[in-house]
Amino acid sequence: PCKLTALLSLPDAEKTPGYWNEGARRKLELALALQPVAQPAKNIIFFMGDGMGLSTMSAARIYKGQLAGGSGEETVLAMETFPHVALSKTYTIDRQVPDSAGTGTAYLCGVKTNAKTLGLSGAASYGKCRSSFGNEVDSILHRARLAGKAVGIVTTTRVQHASPGAAYAHSASRSWYADANMPKEALQDGCKDIAYQLVHNTDINVSWEQVILGGGRMYMTPKRTPDPEYPEDSAQNGTRKDGLNLIAEWLSTKQDARYVWDKKGLDAVKDDSVSYLMGLFEPKDMKYELNRNTSTDPSIVEMTEKAIRILRRNHNGFFLFVEDDRVPRVGGRIDHGHHSGRAKQALMEAVMLDRAVARAGELTSPSDTLTVVTADHSHVFTFGGNTLRGTSIFGLAPKKAKDKRSYTSILYGNGPGYSILDGGRPSASLPAAEDKDYRQQAAVPLETETHSGEDVVVLAQGPMAHLFHGVQEQHYIAHAMAYAACLEPYAAEPGCRAARRASHSTQCSPQPVLALLALSVAANMMGG
Fold it and tell me: Structurally, what CATH architecture does the domain formed by 42-380+450-491 represent?
């Protein structure tokens, strides 16, 4: 039966019990052989797909397979090969359905907080500058920097956006990108904008490598400074009212530092000659992958590779945060695509994030690098309609709805895709529904589609990846990563010392119970 199954084409093979039995046996053998890697992680790569809920992951899997010419459903994403899986509860202190600032503070700083605030505990209030003083919480990037590790941020949105911002900023508002975006009262009270903090809060030790790649040029330069890429478009000019050129300021304090603003500049950077790299490739967010000019704008895969090649030179290891979040007005590009109701844009971003995960795996080793992939929240995005196997993920349901009109498999619970035509919703049609800017229909009319509140998946491989298990609060992610890399507040924990001893042995000596006990004891320390 085994040989017969191997000789059959996939559709025919799937009709035989042997195909499924053999596949399950192979998975069982892998599961039985799986052993925890209970030693410290030298490096951590943390991939965050903004808005990449389970339905988005499933649809992206199918899209990836169909891009390769297959049916799609049986495709495996690179991130899905990771052996350890958990679920993360995404609510914030004040919201059942969260935003990217509150969730970013949770998974990067280790404490849940209020929506729209960055790097602050729940004692701070949104928009109230004075409430931030004394309520700052440190991120895992900050802790990695203190431990002598190189650090990096890669994002397809502006580097001052909520998700990367939580890695370095303490702000009562996620929208305080530059001083021009802040109320007069907040400036008078002494609060600093997020771009200012990007330059000043990450320089704990200037002897370690640092990489910052994404968008957000306009928030770094004085008002009316022409943009290098769009010099004739005044809407893309610098916005700072304080006259600071933060790019020049960042460069002036470092040796072997380089600033680039296009793909040509990034490609010209030699990995062994630059210790500090800042690349800002758009005035605000970077373009969607499907809209990207491949000759002038780097992809998330290219940015991730450049960051790893520079950061891995540090003998103490590195921490790298990689985010794909591209949605008009609100967040990273996956997230942005959903907010605008354009599923194809969102799913292509998810596919590109997975390609970045795959490339990172080729450039590092799971023996010393903990890689974690998760989302900050999900979206009211779904696909259904009893579609047949192999149907385009952007295609139509096989039967018309009760109103005798066609509809796409992908639908949104709310958003800009709501439409009424001749007393009812318009009938969906091909090839229009396959267009990259097609807006799938939504049940409730909103200017932008909203996040959703269900749990999101966490996938992990590498040292201490077994700590990611079960259903966890989102802030647990930061604690598990800190414990894995022996960062504060876990540097002196018994489980961390035991893991160090195990790293000198030829045999694996997992101590998951001790590790989890240490996490439980210190769980409230990380926010202090």
Answer: 3-Layer(aba) Sandwich (3.40)
